[in-house]
Amino acid sequence: MIIGNTKFDIGARTYIVGIVNVTPDSFYDGGKHNSINQAISYAEKLVSEGADIIEIGGESSRPGAIPVEEEEELSRVLPVLKELKKHINVPISIDTRRASVAEQSICLGASMINDFGCMKKDEHMASVCSKYDVACCIMHNRDNMNYNNFILDVISDLNEALDIALNAGIPHDKIILDPGVGFAKTVALNVSVIKNLEEFSKLKYPVLIGTSRKSFIGNILNLPLEERLEATLATTALAISKHCDFIRVHDVKANKRVCIITDEIVRGRH
Questions:
Q1: Is 161 among the domain residues?
Q2: Is the pTM of this model over 0.85?
Q3: Active-site choice (214, 228, 242, 256)
Q4: Which of 76, 213, 228, 248 is catalytic?
Q5: What pLDDT shows up at residue 65?
Q6: What's the gap between Cα 201 and its chain centre?
Q7: I need a surface site. Which of 69, 74, 81, 90 has the fewest CB within 10 A?
Q8: 56, 92 contact by CB (below 8 A)
């Protein structure tokens, strides 16, 4: 898989997406990296710790977050993206549900779009990704939790999104799937995603998972955000053992170490 100018050898090792939220209200790092200098400095730190992709988010996607207007999202994302391109040499992903934000970001140098709208919130998202031939991550999301057979229903939802993407002309080798831990799922359903993660690999696309410090961890352990790192690392190791290809995290250094040792055991790299 090619993302930007970088080749990702899917299956050879686990790749890390480092999160840089330029929002006031993201659940963990909201308000920490709002200035351009803060965001760039933090992104450089994540790359030095082992991030293979840096992802910028300008609208909090946490459940219950207040939606922001398009212009506000653009004003948060574009100045950081424009400057960040000068400072790092890894691909930059944009976390957005809006095709307009995706398009303007791609024109400024973004190499990947992480669509937390599952290709359905904005009917133009797939065509934008196709037009510019960028990688896209399709994250499972829906407006309800009316599941009949949970895993099969999530797979069905992802297949619908895949049909949209493929029909728009997005190549197979530009697509990543994310089963959407934390989105339209209870604590038990989030656990079920991780337990059954290998089922998503059967769709024959690279799989990304984002569990970093999320509320299901806090609910299980009754711990605040600041004390959820160890549990996040456990989910990283489990995800790799179940054929996950990308992890999306806040704490790159610690997760990188887990990836190295787990890849050594699971993938037999040496």
A1: yes
A2: yes
A3: 214
A4: 248
A5: 65
A6: 16
A7: 69
A8: yes
